[in-house]
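Quick one, T. Sequence first:
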Amino acid sequence: MRFFGTAWVDHDGGYGLRRAGVAAGALAAAVAGCLVLRFAYQGLAVADVGGFVNALVVVMFAICSAVAFRKTWEGFTRRPIGSAAEDSLRSLKAIGFIGSLLAYFFRSLTEAPGEKLRREEYETARSQYEKRRGARTGNPAARKGKGGKSKRK
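Structure tokens:
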């Protein structure tokens, strides 16, 4: 929601262009990340570390990317609970940054990432505000006291 400000509320202020820009930026960053990982893999091949280590690196990045994708995708639909388990996955999500970027890309094709969650929170807060506002109608000074008589004369 960082790139959208309040444009997501009414889908105005260049919302569509911003969403397209975020999608393109996330995809470009994922492609750049893949290129960097390819150079790192080529470095392992030049170092001749062996097939086992090469396979281990590929599997590690694949698993970390899958975990990062899933956790990022879940973060668009519900607030993280802030548990120790989430904190321990932070390094996995950093290693699997390509998965996070791809989740961001795919989500921005349908909505601003996190928009559904924010919209639910916004609608809840708005209805609570309207309920509180409705309960406070009228002038409290004009309310009648005991016996049905006004306090002021």
